[in-house]
Write a structure and sequence with these properties.
Blueprint (H helix, E strand, L loop, with lengths): L13 H5 L8 E4 L3 E2 L12 H13 L5 E5 L5 E5 L1 H10 L3 E6 L4 H12 L7 H22 L5 H16 L3 H9 L5 H8 L5 H7 L4 H14 L21 H12 L12 H4 L9 H23 L1
Parallel strand pairs: 2-4, 3-5
Antiparallel strand pairs: 1-5, 3-4
Helix pairs in contact: 2-3, 4-5, 5-6, 5-7, 6-7
């Protein structure tokens, strides 16, 4: 990928662009000169929303310019506007209105995440990778500006700040970021709502080999519960576990012991059906005989 060497161009500030972008200073850029942001975590798919965007552009054009930053090759990296660019290409537009902004890698990452976080529907995987990218950028930028904080302290401050901006607690931010440690197959299950968030977080601490075995187990046996993973915590830093042993652990943890049922009857209830002089043994014998007759009747109906 070409290196980013900023050009001396006076343009709008990032703060202005992340609010309501001003059309002042916009230019029309050839769509072929714009490439996606590196490791862009937000998916651009041809769904119903994309169809609506395409129709809107056909009727009204692109009302909000995209945000890009220049490189030294005469091309531009997209910061905000991947869906608009995709829709413009589907419509057949050759040029798209854009605002060019010089940004460092860290500032560009933060701007890209903040702009896309405004979308109404965000998949767990999209939120996870975007939060991680923003935290890494903030930590990197913070490590240059505040050398008084330790690395761990910087991460805590970043998580709190990011969480406040998107309506999440610090611990929630970290739980989302844990999803980035999942193999793609398990992450797809999270996005599809087939793997619980808490279960996914527990699995994320295991190495990818173990995660692949868990995915295969889920594929064959259905979803698993968090309780089934408790005994696997001992293998987070241990590579000696075999697939057969893992399956045994998951099956054993899944099998919950049968709880004994204890049914009691008050004397008041029993007096409705048995004379007062009947002993407890006589009452129990009669009840057992009646239950046996009921069971035989049920079996005859099922036959």
């Amino acid at each position: 990928m070409p290196s980013r060497v900023g050009k001396k161009v006076k343009l709008a500030s990032v703060d202005e662009l992340l609010g309501v972008p001003s059309v002042e200073g916009t230019v029309d850029l050839d769509v072929m000169t714009i490439y996606p942001f590196e490791n862009h975590p937000f998916r651009v798919v041809d769904d119903e929303d994309m169809d609506d965007l395409v129709e809107s552009i056909k009727e009204n054009g692109i009302l909000t310019p995209v945000l890009v930053r220049p490189d030294d090759q005469g091309t531009y990296e997209m910061i905000s506007g991947h869906r608009r660019l995709h829709a413009a290409k589907k419509v057949g537009l050759r040029k798209i209105p854009a605002i060019i902004k010089e940004m460092t890698n860290d500032d560009a990452t933060i701007a890209m995440v903040d702009a896309n976080m405004q979308r109404e529907e965000i998949l767990p995987s999209e939120r996870a990778f975007s939060l991680k990218m923003k935290m890494d950028a903030m930590n990197h930028r913070g490590s240059r500006s505040d050398l008084t904080l330790s690395h761990d302290a910087t991460k805590l401050v970043s998580a709190e700040k990011i969480g406040a901006e998107v309506g999440l607690g610090r611990s929630q931010v970290h739980r989302y970021i844990r999803l980035t440690y999942l193999i793609p197959q398990l992450l797809d299950l999270v996005d599809a709502g087939r793997l619980a968030f808490a279960v996914a977080g527990e699995i994320s601490y295991l190495n990818h080999k173990y995660q692949q075995w868990i995915f295969e187990y889920i594929r064959e046996n259905g979803m698993i519960k968090q309780e089934q993973l408790m005994d696997l915590r001992a293998y987070r830093e241990d590579d000696s576990l075999t697939q057969e042993k893992m399956i045994d652990i998951l099956i054993k943890s899944r099998a919950t012991p049968q709880t004994r049922k204890k049914i009691t009857f008050s004397e008041r209830k029993l007096n409705k059906y048995f004379p007062a002089f009947y002993s407890q043994t006589e009452i129990e014998n009669i009840m057992i005989k009646l239950l046996e007759q009921w069971k035989e009747a049920q079996e005859s109906e099922d036959a």
